[in-house]
Design brief:
Largest sheet: 7 strands, mixed
Structural class: alpha/beta
Number of domains: 2
Order of helices and strands: HHEHEHEEHEEEEEHEEHEEHHHEH
Mean pLDDT: 97
Helix content: 25-40%
Number of helices: 11
CATH topology of the largest domain: Aspartate Aminotransferase, domain 2
Distance between the termini: 23 Å
CATH superfamily of the largest domain: Type I PLP-dependent aspartate aminotransferase-like (Major domain)
Low-confidence stretches: none
């Protein structure tokens, strides 16, 4: 079976974990700061704060920027639900903006019409390993004095004009097992703002800078030492793993062109790191069934816009409009792209898809 995702774990990660276990320091060890410092340097940010997940990184970023009740935060309806839920957890209101069909990301040209006097921030997702037009996004943020938070859960190593995702605003990363690098569970917040970095560290540690001295309301959002040990080794491999994903993507694109499949587009100035290889097909159920019959797993990211989820319906969100998001949700299908795929795997995927009528 060709799986949709497969974490790449080597002897280096295994040894690092055993070293932590042997040390007896399983939480708040010195390797967490080592991981934070290495990650900040990789992204091109001054500071990084390791968290227990990508979701808690998002929640921490919103809290650190003092996003609160009555504030509005502009974001995309086409993402994993954690993006919007993080806004709600802080008491604020997600305001959705439709996406671009060719990038799956928020359409920057539609953002300004959704800005009100309650808009305080934009939570911008770089979906499937591709950033949106960050030049336009940053210009809007500056023009309207909005906080920019980046959801980079799926875009670790992605770039826009040679600048990495997570370095434009406050970046939030996930290291879930399916991601381009993993710590098992874990996340990271990146920033160039010393105050945001300091506040974030307090938020994740029960509001404390000094043991048993709690200045603000905080949480236990800390990363453990075992996860950090894995992360240090995974970060060393990230560029190589991303290179393999990009090579796999280029091979699929070259060999699936001239079909009825709408393939990912790689634009000049963007580095797409292909967390997912998302295609658009008209007969998705049939395609998915045939793939599975041929031992190829696929997945739907995502079957409905966030505002159609039962939770958001109870919150009173309208299901009208957002024509691009709705169309993409009907047609999108993710096929294997991970670094462990062989040429034989890729050829089998290509042959199977080309033979579907």
């Amino acid at each position: 079976m060709i799986n949709i995702a497969k974490p790449v774990i080597g002897e280096e990660e295994k040894k690092a974990v055993l070293d932590v276990l042997d040390s007896g320091i399983l939480s708040q060890g010195s390797n967490i700061k080592e991981f934070e410092d290495s990650f900040a340097k990789y992204i091109g940010a001054k500071y990084a704060t390791a968290t227990s997940s990508g979701t808690t990184a998002l929640q921490t970023a919103l809290l650190a920027h003092d996003i609160k009740k009555s504030d509005e935060v502009i974001t995309t309806p086409f993402s994993f639900i954690a993006t919007a839920n993080s806004i709600i957890h802080g008491g604020a209101k997600p305001v959705f903006v439709d996406i671009e069909k060719d990038t799956f990301n928020i359409n920057p040209d539609l953002i300004e019409e959704k800005i009100t006097d309650k808009t305080k921030a934009m939570l911008i997702v770089s979906l499937f390993g591709l950033t949106p037009d960050m030049e336009k996004i940053c210009s809007i943020a500056k023009k309207h004095d909005l906080i920019l938070i980046e959801d980079c859960a799926q875009s670790n190593g992605a770039e826009f004009k040679n600048k990495k995702a997570g370095s434009f605003g406050t970046g939030c990363f996930s290291f879930y097992p399916t991601k381009n690098m993993t710590t098992g569970e874990g996340g990271m917040l990146t920033t160039n703002d010393e105050k945001i970095a300091e506040t974030s560290r307090m938020i994740i540690n029960h509001g404390s800078k000094v043991k048993y001295h709690h200045e603000i309301l905080g949480y236990n959002f800390r990363m453990n030492s075992i996860s950090a040990a894995i992360g240090i080794e995974q970060l060393k491999k990230l560029d190589h793993l991303n290179k393999k994903r990009i090579e796999n993507a280029n091979y699929l694109i070259e060999n699936l062109k001239n079909t009825n499949i709408i393939l990912p587009k790689i634009k000049e100035g963007y580095k797409h790191v292909f967390h997912q290889f998302a295609i658009l097909v008209e007969n998705r159920d049939k395609v998915q069934k045939v793939l599975l019959e041929n031992n190829i797993r696929s997945d739907i990211h995502y079957p409905m816009p966030i505002f159609e989820q039962p939770l958001y319906q109870r919150l009173g969100y309208s299901t009208e409009g957002f024509n691009v998001s709705r169309e993409v949700c009907r047609k999108v299908l993710s096929i294997p792209i991970h670094p462990s795929l062989t040429k034989e795997d890729l050829d089998h995927i290509i042959k199977t898809l080309r033979e579907i009528k």
